[in-house]
Amino acid sequence: MGLYNPSQVTVTTPSSGTSTPTTVPASITSVTVLDANSNRQGATIWNESTANLYIEFGATATTSAFTAKLSAGGYFEVPLHYTGVISGIWSAANGNALVRELT
Fold it and tell me: What residues does each domain of the chain span?
């Protein structure tokens, strides 16, 4: 068995050179906030609404089953390397989600 040599370990940190902005109108039914994207390095979501926004890592968000709850003016950073679909639902239909996808 060989010995571990840290000088032979290569660490590659992903980086992003592109930020794609989108605006998602508030809805009281589940909507797609971001489509699945295998090239996604990260994303941000800002709730530009006076209503709560419930974010789900998956195809359908509900107000009782969600990944994160964003209050009015709330901000969320999608964990690094999550590339699946992200859905959202608001407690009232006013305002938007301002989304930035980093690829």
Answer: 17-102
Token pair in block for residue 95: 């305002």
CATH architecture of 17-102: Sandwich (2.60)
SS3 sequence of the chain: CCCCCHHHCCCCCCCCCCEEEEEEECCCCCEEEECCCCCCCEEEEEEECCCCEEEEECCCCCCCCCCEEECCCCEEEECCCCCCCEEEEECCCCCEEEEEEEC
**pLDDT per position as a tens digit, 24-37:** 999 999 999 999 99
The pTM (predicted TM-score) of the whole model is 0.84
Q: Which residues contact 22 (CB under 8 A, 6 or more apart)?
A: 34, 99, 101
